[in-house]
Structure formats: C-alpha cells, structure tokens
Write a structure and sequence with these properties.
The chain has about 400 residues and is of the alpha/beta class. It has 13 helices and 14 strands. Strands 3-2-1-4-5 form a five-stranded parallel beta sheet, with helices on both faces. About 35% of the residues are buried.
C-alpha cells in the first residue's frame, strides 16, 4: 500500500503528536506531505505551526482562518435544531471535525494528493468523524490513521521517536500532562489524566474559558440577543458577523461562569469517557434561541423539533454531518425557522443564563387569549367542556373495561 501513496494531506496542529505523524508519514510511505492547519478560534498562534512544518521540510503548507465558515455553516445550523447530545453536551468538538475533514479532502483534490491523514487515536470518536466525512465527500480518497498503524504505544516511545528524529519537544511535553485540551470558537474540551476518574471532582485549574461560578460577579448582567430566521445576528443591539458574535457571547458568558459541564458520555466506539466542557457563548445561544422559538413556533412545530433533536444530535456526534438523513432533518429544521426572528433578553448570573423577556414581530403569543381579564378575542370557556369530553372518551372506555375485568 505504501507504494500507492505519493502525496498526503495531513491535519497538522504543530504539536508533538502531529509532528511525529508528519515524520512517520515521510518515513513509512516515502511520500510528499502537505500540511493543513485550521484556525477555528482555538486561541493559539498558528504561525509556529508553519515554521515547524518548514523546518521539517514541508513545501506546501496551508493555514486557513475558517472561523466565519465554522460558525455560519456548521455551528448556526446545528443550533437551529437546539442540538444537545445525551441531554447536555453542545457538541463543540463533534461539529468542528466535518469542516476540518472537508478542507482536507478539498486540498487533496486541488493538489492531486492520494490520501489524507489525521492524528485521532483508535479509541476516540474523531477518527470516525474524519473518515466518514471523507467517505461522503470523496469515496476514492485514502485515509491514513497512524495511531491504528504504527507501533508507538506509549508516551515514552513517542518522545524517544521525536528525539531520534530531531523533532522539537516543548519542555512541558517531557513531563506528565495533567489533561489534554481541544478548543475552538464554540468550546473547550478537557479530557484524560486528572479527569479520568469520574468519582474525583475536576480540579479548578482545568477550566480554560470560564471563571468559577462562585467567583463570578455578584451582580447579574442583562444582555439582549437578536435573531433573524433562527440565527443570532446581534448582541445588545450591535450587529455582528457569526464568528464575532460567538466571540462576544463567549466573553460575556465566560465572565459569569456560564457553560461549564462535567460529563461522562457514551462514545460512538463503545466506551464511556469523562470530560470537562466549557461552552459559554453556545449556552447563551441555546437558551436565547429556545426563548425566541417559544413565541414564534407553533406547538406542533416545537414539539416535532424536540422529538427529532436527539436523533439529529446523535448523527452529529457520530460523524454523520454529510449523511443524507442529517441533510433531510436540516431541511425540516430550517423550514421551521422562517419566522424565528426577534430579540431575547437574557440574565447572566453565577453560572446561569436565564431568559427574562422575549419579543418578535411574528409572535404567536396572544395577550387577548391568555389574559384573565376580558379580552378583545372571544374565548368561550364553555367550549372547553366538549373538548375535554372528546379527549376523555377513550379514558372512560378504558376504565370501564378494567372495572369489568376486576382490575
């Protein structure tokens, strides 16, 4: 197989693991390696990755700012669905992988590469997400997953390989890392080492993006989030691009300790894992979006969306962003968002984001119908009697049968 690979595009962070993979690909496949580094808002300087790739002899280096595309075309569509995995997880890592994999495939096609490669381990979900995306976008592309091929099984072996091949090792990489972090504009994810035992509370220092709710300001902060057709477009009356809007909400939420989650989840590959997630801006978006939907969606629309949401979330978590069933669900969800426009007022306080007001030019809420005073719209209380009788008919029949049977 190695002889078939002449050029490969590697998802490259510039860190120890992907730098070792870069060298390993050159040695094992004797091929040209192209590196691709995506800026998804992880908050790290990416130029060092370019310099490191150049130092390792890479001629074609791609470093791309994908923050706006990430939020506009991946995060926002997902949030229109109010997607949460297993009831709580806002899918921050899951939604980033299809975009990275999409660009890997596109660069491979543009450069005439035979394969793409990633640094996901054989125990995690990311290998599935990268490879299912590649399958969906280019069935002919080969995928190289070094963690499933090489014989480097321990941290000691990785460090020894790096030293043997003169791959720079950051000083803190020589020690035992307390945990690993994945970050993008939507969230940070911390896993491993000090977090592996779910019976032990996560140390305070693990948090990357949020203050401890107990240390958050003692005064609440009131903000407004504006929506157009289901997507947030403004904060406190100021129109912002998708990436800038999420950045602003991250800043506001992080200051008040909003969006922390300590979760034991079920991985697609069959094991449970524990992680600490921080999604301050996303948490505010979700709360605000449900707030605006509460006055703009019909009951049937809202309840159907809630029924479909777990399936939609699971598809994203499992790597099926480009699958036809996810696209079918997206079309339904987007149809529901035609009138989800307006403004939501949210209170941020000590780790909580709470809706306290909402308004929309397309509101279905009728003061005349719900008021306890005499309203302009006629509602005859006597109409409820027939409604209850019809809905209670089957219950009476059921109860009569049970009574006859002596139950």
């Amino acid at each position: 197989m190695a002889k078939d690979i002449k050029k490969v595009v590697l998802a490259y962070s510039g860190g120890l693991d992907t730098s070792i993979i870069l060298k390993w690909l050159q040695e094992t496949y004797n091929c040209e390696v192209i590196t691709f580094t995506a800026d998804l808002g992880q908050g790290e300087e990416l130029e060092p990755a370019r310099k490191k790739a150049e130092m390792m002899g890479i001629k074609e280096i791609h470093i791309e700012d994908l923050r706006e595309e990430f939020v506009r075309d991946f995060v926002f569509p997902m949030f229109r669905a109010n997607a949460v995995y297993e009831g709580v997880y806002l899918l921050g890592t899951s939604i980033a992988r299809p975009l990275i994999a999409k660009r890997l495939v596109e660069i491979a096609q543009e450069s005439g590469a035979d394969a793409i490669s990633h640094g996901a381990t054989g125990k995690g979900n990311d290998q599935v997400r990268f490879e299912l995306t590649a399958n969906a976008l280019d069935p002919s592309i080969k995928v190289i997953a070094p963690w499933r091929e090489w014989d480097l099984r321990s941290r000691t072996q990785l460090l020894a390989y790096a030293e043997r091949n003169q791959i720079p090792i950051a000083k803190d990489k020589r020690g035992e890392a307390p945990f690993s972090v994945d970050a993008n504009l939507l969230h940070t994810s911390s896993e491993g080492m000090v977090l592996e035992d779910p019976a032990v509370p996560a140390p305070d220092y693990v948090a990357q993006r949020t203050v401890n709710p107990e240390d958050a300001p003692n005064e609440p902060e009131i903000i407004t989030v504006g929506f157009e057709k289901g997507d947030p477009v403004s904060v406190n009356g100021v129109k912002l691009s998708p990436a800038n809007l999420l950045t602003k909400l991250n800043e506001l939420g992080g200051k008040h300790g909003v969006g922390r989650l300590d979760l034991v989840e079920n991985r697609f590959v069959g094991m449970k894992s524990r992680g600490l997630y921080e999604t301050p801006g996303g948490t505010i978006m979700l709360v605000a979006h449900r707030g605006i939907e509460s006055i703009t969606l019909d009951r049937g629309e809202a309840h159907l969306k809630d029924e479909l949401m777990p399936k939609y979330a699971e598809l994203i978590y499992n790597g099926f962003w480009f699958a036809p069933e996810r696209e079918m669900l997206q079309a339904l969800i987007d149809k529901s968002q035609e009138f989800v426009t307006g403004e939501v007022t949210v209170k941020l306080y000590k780790g909580q984001a709470s809706v306290i007001a909402r308004t929309s030019p397309f509101s279905l809420y009728s003061m005349d119908l719900v008021t306890f005073e005499e309203g302009a719209v006629a509602y005859d209380h006597k109409d409820a009697e027939g409604f209850i009788k019809l809905n209670g008919l089957r219950l009476k029949t059921y109860a009569a049968r049970n009574k006859k049977a002596g139950r």
